[in-house]
Amino acid sequence: MTRMSALLAIASTVLAMTAAPAYALKPFTAQYDASYKGISAGGSMSLSQQGNRWTHTMGIRNAMANLSQATVFEDAAGRYRPLGGSDRSTYLMKTRSIVTHYNWKGMQVRWTGDVKPQRAGPVAMQVGDMDALLVNLALVRDVGFGRTSMNYRLLENGKAKPMAYRVAGREKITVGGRALDTTKVVQDAGGKQTTAWIAAGVPAPVRIVQREDGSEVFRLQLTSWR
């Protein structure tokens, strides 16, 4: 092999390594300390795989409230494409349940269950659309890629809306006696603010805090994962 051929081979290898995906989905289970409207709760998040489909779940539960969300999706060339979702909440003995139906052939999404007629859809979809659970996974992926601003389009509550996250600094957060270097990302829209802390090697956000009109609604703080 000539010197030039060797250099070209090395360059090709480096380019291939650079182009290779830096993040791959893997099943996980994470436990959280949580609070909902000022009351302590337990929280969990999980990701499981069935063939080429994935199920991502999140739950928060205390004596007064039980919130659970689930999304079935596929990893389409690096895009997390939702196929179906459910959102169920019980608060002060009142239950609300909503199911999301994605039609990628017709490029429309609808909602059924305890939803107002004006929020049932259909809403026109775009390639790259996600729900709130998938945004959590996308943040882990994109912060891992070193991105400092992240723009998503969220399908929720009978409408589509843009979500723009920006990096707002770095913090150390201790989980199970281990200090993690985290990247703090924030998004503000319509009186709601969501802040997430992402750490390399951790498959789910280390902390999530959501505020509405300045008041904290819920908080998740990672305690363990596997």
Give the low-pLDDT segments. Answer: 1-22
Q: What integer value in Å does the Rg equal?
A: 20 Å
Helix content class: 10-25%
Cα shape: globular
Distance between the ends = 47 Å
Trace the largest sheet across and list its strands: 8-7-6-5-4-3-2-1-14-13-12-11-10-9
The average pLDDT value, as a whole number, equals: 89
Give the biggest sheet: 14 strands, antiparallel
Number of strands: 14
Amount of beta strand: over 45%
Question: How many helices?
Answer: 2
In sequence order, what are the helices and strands, one letter per element? HEEEEEEEEHEEEEEE
Report the structural category: mainly beta
Summarize the model shown.
With 226 residues, this protein is mainly β. The chain contains 2 helices and 14 strands; from the N terminus they run H-E-E-E-E-E-E-E-E-H-E-E-E-E-E-E.
What does this structure look like?
The chain is mainly beta and 226 residues long. It is 13% helix and 60% strand. The radius of gyration is 20 Å and the shape is globular. It has a 14-stranded antiparallel β-sheet with strand order 8-7-6-5-4-3-2-1-14-13-12-11-10-9, with helices on one face. The chain is built from 2 helices and 14 strands.
Strand-helix topology:
Blueprint: H1 3-19, E1 28-36, E2 39-50, E3 53-61, E4 65-76, E5 79-91, E6 94-103, E7 108-113, E8 123-124, H2 132-144, E9 149-156, E10 159-175, E11 178-189, E12 192-199, E13 207-212, E14 215-225
Antiparallel strand pairs: 1-2, 1-14, 2-3, 3-4, 4-5, 5-6, 6-7, 7-8, 9-10, 10-11, 11-12, 12-13, 13-14
